Amino acid sequence: MSDTSRYKITGMSCAACQAHVEKAVSGVSGVTKCEVSLLTNSMNVEGSASPEDIIKAVENAGYGASVSEGGSAGAVTDDELNDTETPKLIRRLILSVILLLILMYFSMGVMMFGWPAPVGLVHTGIVVLEAVLSGIILIINRKFFISGFKAVIHKAPNMDTLVAMGAGVSYIYSSVTLIRIFNVCMEDAMDLMMNELYFESAAMIVTLITVGKTLESYSKGRTTDALRSLMKLAPASAVVLRDGKETEVPIEEVKVGDLFVVRPGEKIPVDGTVVSGSSAVNESALTGESIPVDKEPGDKISAACTNLSGLLTCRAERVGEDTTLSEIIRMVRDASSTKAPIARIADKVSGIFVPSVMAVALVVFVIWMIIGGEFPYALTRAITVIVVSCPCALGLATPVAIMVGNGVGAKNGILFKTSASLEEAGRSRIAVLDKTGTLTKGDPVVTDVHPAGGVSEDRLLKNAFSLESGSEHPLAKAVVSYAGERNITRTEIKELKVFPGNGLVGKTEDGEIRGGNERFISETCDLSDEIKNIASKLASEGKTPMFFAENDKLLGIIAVSDVLKEDSVKAISELKKLGLRVVMLTGDNELTAAQIGKQSGVDEIVSGVLPSGKEAVINKLREHGKVLMVGDGINDAPALTSADTGMAIGAGTDVAIDAGDVVLMKSSLSDVCAALRLSRKTLTVIHENLFWAFIYNLLLIPIAAGAFAGIGLQMSPMFGAAAMSLSSFTVCMNALRLNLFRPHESAKDRAPRDFDRERKLLDNEEKSVFSSIKETDMTRTMNIEGMMCTHCEASVKKALEALEGVTSAEVSHEKGTAVVSLSSEVSDDVLKKAVEDKDYKVTGIE
């Protein structure tokens, strides 16, 4: 069995360290995958190797390791996010700068510009003071030397090795020169003091590198701001009901099943269900949606959301590490710890970078000596090559952008599970959208009201409202909701009778009311050709016409249908502007699918496809480019898995976390566009960072080596150290620009240059093949009474496909059957209960 564990790594200073730790751990028996993050100083390991063996491998490589609290699945702790390194670096930097200023006063001011010196302090005394001050600065920054030489001992030189070599060689050479000064004449001594002392260079190198490290550490700390802000959302305490009394307890003491109270203005402490009370709740902390959501008894609530108006009493269901908020935080953290594919080239370069730089420095020194350069000059060129080279920028180029990008996504309700998904999403060229629940609302609503001649709309609605109030059918709920929104009053219904698959009959003080399908109503009413034509037209539009009559007189028709979400048309238009071909993929019949497709504006429609057929469609589309599949994350799991990028679209706590590569917390299709924009912007920043990291070294190493000395372009070790410091800082700050990015703004959307708007992806013959694909698994045929329409089919289908072991359910209200395909054995009782819980009757299972 393969497990994933998470470790905290200490002692890493650059990308070379990261590469060495990965190599060491990957060589441990039982390790199948190892990913090390320089940004978070963490490591994720997959495999069966024991923690002891893994930690030993890290320590043998010269670094420290410890198991993170709770492993990879554990909650994100404050210790993981607290920036403990920057304060230490600031203290080192302050001391170094103070001493460096004193050193520079004597070495530059007194020796070169004749500034006043303390009485009695002669030139040789000043030189000795320089050596002492420089030595103290090197001791303050001894971490470079300890880490650098330890890395050499373990045959894995890193950035600290370069710094230690540059500063150490400068100091040692200067110390030797200092001894020579006391053994030569005054004239030669002055020449040595002016031209061959590098005490200030040694001190300047470590101080400037510390400046860069401090800036880098600060900017790296800023990349986790999003995680910190998420962690601060959860309240520290909760008011629970114990023995009928309200008691405030720490959040850690809330248990599953506890009743807790949330007053207006307070944040919800844990996930649960409303038991009593009603209120508007702001869920923007989780979904990014600022519009409050009304909550009533039975509704789900999530931790960190804010209660705006009424008093709520709720029952705790998910506490501690199991809350939706904790899951989001953990997902963002884990995604930032994984490696993006684009980072591999930087990792390969980083692994050989430091040894290569050391070799280049040696070659530079030898060449200058061969062509007649003086020893101090050749040494200076070699030292400058060493200190200007920076593997850190290479190592940080990708992870800092990934961390910030994930944070921006989390703030907007977009969760990328891995760095790879954040990188790949923006490269999609084909967007495949499920219909129900993705393009459409998934719940039927009233779309048309057609009163019969001589009947008012209010009279039709009043009678329909009265009759359907006694039914739990999805179509009935649509009528009740529609009438309720228009403040229609209802009369009391007596002796309500249900005729499964046909309709309802009830009695009022004024007589009998009937409601149902055309066949049911025509048994007692004469339907005119005009009414039949209206019903036929509604049916051709994918709507379900419901007939109502009073005392055998037709009142009219109310049409119900699943309608597009408010933002679907706009979102599809934006997807097209982003350069994606949009395909609607559905199991619905061709007529209904065509109507929804026409309204939404998709490029192509594939209808009548079962889950296994959807997977085949995705695989075929992948021949034309990278495919993005958007679905509800449950019934569309095979298609989500087979797509290059799967997006599970949901609503907060109902999100199917395990289904896709990207999880959208809201049921808004606009978030798909936002995710694509964020992915593309993050990828752009990564490209910029990698370009800067590579071009920096390609340009400055030749200058540092003296290749352009002939035209007067040279660099001192001090400027080399300054450039090295700024390179990593620049990469981090460039990534932090992502915090200013607004993923929902579409003004700058554009299609890739190679995008072909007119290209067809699938022909009619291919679509018919997909529609004929059947499941090859075990099947059961259920005979069901009570289904009247496509919405009944959808209700039964959803209930069956939610069962473990059920791969798909092909439901027909006309045949009164459900053909259930199984991947494992499911008892008939379980199948029957799932359907009958939806108020339909199962008469047999074959």
Which helices and strands, and how do they pair?
Layout: E1 3-10, H1 15-26, E2 31-37, E3 42-47, H2 51-60, E4 64-67, H3 78-81, H4 85-113, H5 123-140, H6 143-153, H7 159-181, H8 186-195, H9 199-222, H10 225-231, E5 237-242, E6 245-250, E7 259-262, E8 271-276, E9 279-282, H11 284-287, E10 293-295, E11 300-301, E12 306-307, E13 312-318, H12 324-337, H13 344-370, H14 375-388, H15 392-411, E14 414-416, H16 419-425, E15 430-434, H17 435-439, E16 440-451, H18 457-468, H19 474-485, E17 494-499, E18 503-508, E19 511-516, H20 518-522, H21 529-540, E20 544-550, E21 553-564, H22 568-577, E22 581-585, H23 590-600, E23 604-606, H24 611-621, E24 627-631, H25 637-642, E25 645-649, E26 662-664, H26 670-705, H27 717-736, H28 764-771, E27 778-785, H29 790-801, E28 806-812, E29 817-822, H30 828-836, E30 841-845
Parallel strand pairs: 15-22, 15-24, 22-23, 24-25, 25-26
Antiparallel strand pairs: 1-3, 1-4, 2-3, 5-6, 5-7, 7-13, 8-11, 8-13, 9-10, 9-12, 14-26, 16-21, 17-18, 18-19, 19-20, 20-21, 27-29, 27-30, 28-29
